[in-house]
Amino acid sequence: MNNTNPKRILVNALSGIGDALMFTPALVKLREIYPDAQIDTLVMFKGVKDIYTRLPQINNVVFFDFMKEGAVNSLKFVLGLRGKYDLSINVYPSNRAEYNVISLLQGSKKRAAVRYLRQDKKNLGFLNNVSIIEEDSRHNVEENILLIEQLTGKKIKDIPPLQFPLNEDDTNFAETWLENNNINESDYIVGFHAGCNTLKNHINRRWSPENFANLGKKLITDKNAKVLVFGGPDEADLKSGIVQSINSERAFQVNTGSMSQTAAVMKRCNTFVTNDSGLMHVASAMKLNVVALIGPTNRNYIYPWQTNHIISTINLDCAPCFYYSPKPLTCTRSDKLYKCIKDLSVEQVMTDISRLEGGR
User: Fold this and answer.
1) Strand (E) positions, the chain?
2) Is the dihedral of CA 59, 95, 19, 241 positive or negative?
3) Which domain holds residue 35?
4) Among 19, 218, 255, 308, which residue's Cβ finds the most Cβ atoms within 10 Å?
């Protein structure tokens, strides 16, 4: 579907860091196909802004906090974009009704998005006039790439890795942080991310802080590891609680001023153990060994892209039960709610770490 090449393109990256990162391979190809177009992005999370402002494929990053600004100011802002773009693209899986309405109100003649298999009509997917239908067997990166193929009429053979370039300031910050905490080149480092998005009941995708703490103790005792605990500003109590529970001078809470500084420190990790979260995808972009702790989520959507990884899971018959939809995460088991993540043992994760690292 490729008539006149668009001159002005707006990418609506209004969901979180992970979704934004999983669109970056599509951004690379979009820029290759439309080298002369103005490509802007609209974001509402500062972590996404931090990543997108450093991508050479993007001309401008427009930041607007829809949740903080409220309905009236948000409507005024979106209407202020009318007539400025020929094409708008919703980053997959941001195809809920509010995102589709925002795209419509922006006034682009072409509006591209991946349509949900479930509840698409309820989510006003028909408001988009360039689309593909999602498949549960495809990764989010692949969905975005196929949408670009549909939009441009160009077949894409080679899909790039996730894009998150670091600069000298980021590297200098990481080197200073590591030096201040006496972390040397010879140290074996394991990173943790115990958080994830809490919206729509997704806090139940988390492995427990107690499990992370016990894993940290075991890594320190058995492998002489140093453990770095990462997370955003809203996860400060979670991070500090795990470090306090590990109760070792070899466990560290990582506090930074930006997503790029976080990524730069993460890059030093030999292995990264994480819930299904934005930092899981940052770890993928940094090409780390990733142990992904997956319970109810369809792993096909979100497995660590183009990096050495292992999915740590207990493979229940009822999993996966969470697919993309506006419905909150729920569990219908009668024996134990969210058994798929709660019964994932520290011993299994330790085994998976060793398997991933080749028996270290």
Assistant:
1) 8-13, 38-43, 60-63, 87-90, 110-115, 130-133, 189-193, 226-230, 251-253, 271-275, 289-293, 309-312
2) positive
3) 8-152
4) 19
Q: What is the mean pLDDT of the chain?
A: 94
d(CA 7, CA 91): 19
**pLDDT confidence of residue 359:** 57
pLDDT digits over 40-49, tens only?
999 999 999 9
Which of residues 122, 152, 182 is at a domain's end? Answer: 152
Q: How far from 190 is each of 96, 228, 267, CA to CA, in Å? A: 36, 6, 11
Specify if 86 maps to a domain: yes
Structure token pair of residue 319: 């999993």
Whether residue 221 contacts residue 251, with contact meaning beta carbons closer than 8 Å, is answered with: no
Domain contains 146: yes
- d(Cα 52, Cα 31) in Å, to the nearest integer? 14
Structure tokens of 132?
């593909």
Residues 135 and 53 in one domain: yes
Number of Cβ atoms within 10 Å of the Cβ of 35 = 9
Mean pLDDT of 87-94: 94
pLDDT digits (tens, 9 = 90+) for 136-168: 999 999 999 999 999 999 999 999 999 999 999
Q: What is the pLDDT of residue 70?
A: 92
- Per-residue model confidence (pLDDT) at position 3: 57
Residue 159 is assigned to a structural domain of this protein: no
The answer to whether residues 120 and 4 touch, using CB atoms and an 8 Å cutoff, is: no
C-beta of residue 27 within 8 angstroms of C-beta of residue 161 = no
